[in-house]
Amino acid sequence: MAPSKRVFLFTAVAAASTLHGRQALNQSTPPTVTLNGSTIENPTAYATPFVLNVEDMWDLLVGPVSTALVTTTASATPVPSSSLIPPPPLYYSSFPSGQQNPMVVKNESWSFPRGFMWGVAGAAWQVEGAVKDEGRGPSVWDVLSHRVTNFEYDNGTADITDNHYYLYKQDLARLAALGVKAYSFSISWSRIMPFGRGPVNQIAIDHYNDLINTCLGYNIIPLATLYHWDTPLALQDTYGGWLSENIVNDFVEYARIAYAAFGDRVDYWFTVNEPSVFCNQYPLPAQYFKNFTIPWQQQPYYCGHNVLLAHSQAYRLGKSMMPNSTIAWKSNGGYKVPLTNSTEDAEAVQRAWDFNEGLWSDPIYLTGDYNDNVKAYISSFLPAFTDGQKAAILGSADIYAHDAYTSQFNFAPDGGIAACLANTSNPLYPVCSNSSFIYTQQDGGWLIGPAADPLTPWLYKATDWVPAFLHYIKDTWAKDKPIAVSEFGFAEPFERQKTYLQDILFDPIRSAYYHDYMEAILIALSEGVNVIGCLAWSFVDNFEWASAYGVRFGMQYVNFSDPTLPRYYKASFFEYKNAFDVYQEK
Ligand code: GAL
Hints:
The chain contains 19 helices and 17 strands. The chain is an alpha/beta fold. It has a domain of 254 residues: Glycosidases (TIM Barrel, Alpha-Beta Barrel), CATH 3.20.20.
């Protein structure tokens, strides 16, 4: 059966239940509406099963999408040697070797171990394009970008983005030409299963098979992420995506299909990417997705709970199917520095760890259950984990993988933590920890480090804190397990405004970020922190979620105005590579 003919039983609930916004979510009784003079007590009782195929879903729920110039898999062409010449000196001293570092000597006490996986990362929805091709079903992000007014910077869509779906052979050739050792990609769930469950799309399996085989052909280690935020739309519309425990079985079934198809060649797996980001996105923008009776403040925690269940079961299944694999999830968040040495600020720092990284890391690495600060908030509305669930969660990661981009200061809210905890309408409730990127006036009032693009206000080049950050992860959660910096990277300020190619390619702050970050990892390694790899975000400029093409994270520039989407190495890619040329044990 051709993928576009596969059917999905879509239950459309009477429109009245979807037309209210956040305010209505707290109500526990169904709404009452008046139609033609007669009162209907429970309009949600009216339901209809629609049968939709993939094409219908796109047409009805997303609308027309753009297609790229290239719509078949392109073969790789040789990378010209002239494009592999490193840039001249930047404005700081670089590592010793290559054209850009005339003055510095190598630090002989540093090295990356031979097996250190230095690589790059991307994610399906941000780089693939070809959103509607070859049987892919829509994800929530296709809807957000097409249907939610002003949601995307400049109304961008990821319909085409880097067209990596068809250009991956050339992309991998370009990574291989620089000697990159590892490529971290995500699998699009709704390509494999257009409705998130049910029929499996063999064309998608064939696609990722070839991508993986192409990696292996270049001796590039493939690392696969099962879920990088692109929830299949059908699951969102049917039961609310991660808000419903229904997602657990569907995710585990999807994991089973991916492990069975690719597990003979992919040894490194990440289940979910950054739950603290995608769970905190709930409630998703009102009016577009079915609202539930879960109060909006609680929605991130329902999501988090279901993530722990889904992740732990997918981990256990993966280890049973691929005993030699390495499986983890991807945590994220900046290093949290107390703004002052007050006791309240120390407590604010702890609360920030507890509600962000700790919400998942404490159960997975320490106890099988939530920490006390989280429990104090969620125990009134979420069920406690059963003993069986706790046992499955505890130890469900072989490494600690952290997307460690930046650092921040944390401090107690105005009026103190206790007052915040007593006031559920405080905007900082329930975490009750404030944050900033600026030192106190007594410490000079400086930024923690140079700012990235204004569209990424959460990101500063705070690389000095990275060794302390890695020690903290080791001491708190990883203990004897290896650590991977599974994403890190920088958005050069205002890069989108540059028009002159050579100017775009010379990205000094990003280059300094990678240089100093590598130095920080070398320091941590020399101090005994077992970092097994790092994956730079990203190998190309791509679709940066709600910032669309307004923000550039690539170590390669992509000219999105040229329909052939040409790629060019930026100076930062050479800086990154150079660290390994100099410091990796041969
Ligand atoms: C990460 C995310 C990536 C990418 C990056 C830069 O949090 O996993 O998808 O967007 O941030 O913002």
